[in-house]
UniProtKB/TrEMBL annotation:
Keyword Manganese: no
Naturally occurring in which organism (per UniProt): Ursus maritimus
PANTHER family, per the entry: BARDET-BIEDL SYNDROME 4 PROTEIN, PTHR44186
Name of protein: BBSome complex member BBS4
Gene: BBS4
Compartments, as annotated in UniProt: Cell projection, Cilium membrane; Cell projection, Cilium, Flagellum; Cytoplasm, Cytoskeleton, Microtubule organizing center, Centrosome, Centriolar satellite
Amino acid sequence: MAEERLATRTPFPASVESQKPRLKKAQEFPILEKQNWLIHLHYIRKDYEACKAVIKEQLQETQGLCEYAIYVQALIFRLEGNIQESLELFQTCAILSPQCADNLKQVARSLFLLGKHKAAIEVYNEAAKLNQKDWEICHNLGVCYIYLKQFTKAQDQLHNALHLNRHDLTYIMLGKIHLLEGDLDKAIEIYKKAVEFSPENTELLTTLGLLYLQLGIYQKAFEHLGNALTYDPTNYKAILAAGSMMQTHGDFDVALTKYRVVACAVPESPPLWNNIGMCFFGKKKYVAAISCLKRANYLAPFDWKILYNLGLVHLTMQQYASAFHFLSAAINLQPKMGELYMLLAVALTNLEDPENAKRAYAEAVRLDKCNPLVNLNYAVLLYNQGERKGALAQYQEMERKVSLLKDSSSLEFDSEMVEMAQKLGAALQVGEALVWTKPVKDTKSKHRTTSTSKAAGFQQPLGSNQALGQAMSSAAAHRKLPSGAGTSQLTKPPSLLPEPEPTAEAHPAEASAQIRENRSRMTPE
């Protein structure tokens, strides 16, 4: 019966849906950003090898279309020094996302690092069209214009950056422009505004203190340097400046104590060893002075101030051939400083080469229009060579310079220089009454590197402290220095370079010149 029932059942027709073919599952496309979090995590942890491995995997999966992976890869290449490779990758990011200003900023940054400042400016201008309120674009445009020496445009861009958003770095670059233009007053105003905005920034405080120090406003200088040391007792730049001030006033032991602290922070600083050497020179420890200066010269072989000091010390030790060597090297690096030619002439005179000594003196007279010691020494040499007419001309030029200096400032003159000039005047039969008055001075200050006002400071009289603050140098302080001062460097903050004023004088009855006063070229970093 059961079999019959099964046989008599009528089969139902199959459903229409079951007869349709099954649709294939949609293809899954890779998510381009699915590992961006991991790339970011490795990058901020500075685990660059793991980061590059994840980037490589991500780019393979996305066929090189993951913008963030390419961007981070370019950042890593830049950190590793592969600037050209980073530029190419940033350009790829800019192609993938042409409306992104950050990609263009990174392209411009790489061009800047490659030294292509004009191309960087063009890219920054394109980025500015996409984001007109980005202070960083204005700031970087100003920096590019500084390197192109277009200071007016640089100031405009930096002021725009400050209008959008105030930052310490923008103030520093704006102050650097004024230093490059030689306008210390405007530079001080900028740094004062910067200190008001960021009163705990030790770099700004130190720079402002050094600028006041250069202008001879010592109270404010010490105030700002002291504030810098209050916030950061280990600020070696402020300590070095304070030690330089003490050295300027002849406190060599205290200055050496300060320099000992700086040596722990920057043991390979050329200005530090230069100043230590000149402290020993002031203490008349000439061998130690030469050792320190040789170390400074090893660390900075193209610093003319160190070579100048080495020549000065060797002249003092009567090692005239060595003095000639270092002074010649300094002249090659600083060919427009008259005092270098004068000291070279002193060395040549002692090496019994009067003809070349005359040439050196003639060049010194041509370059130095203020220092009467150049004319005095030249007159002595000409007198000893029997050229009375030339000696008389140089003597009269010396008196003219002294008269101008007495009219422009209340300078005192070194007693030895006055005595020597009087003897030369008597020998030339022009009388012994000179245009100056003979001061009473302590002869113990003869070899001080930073003694008070003496005849050596005629290049730029500074009253009672002619060796103070004659020059500035730094990364942050590009500016045109006065004659006889060191050149600035592009990558350091401004720093004090107290001006040395070495001089030489000679007795008319002797064939050789003697070093009257030796002052160092101090170069706090």
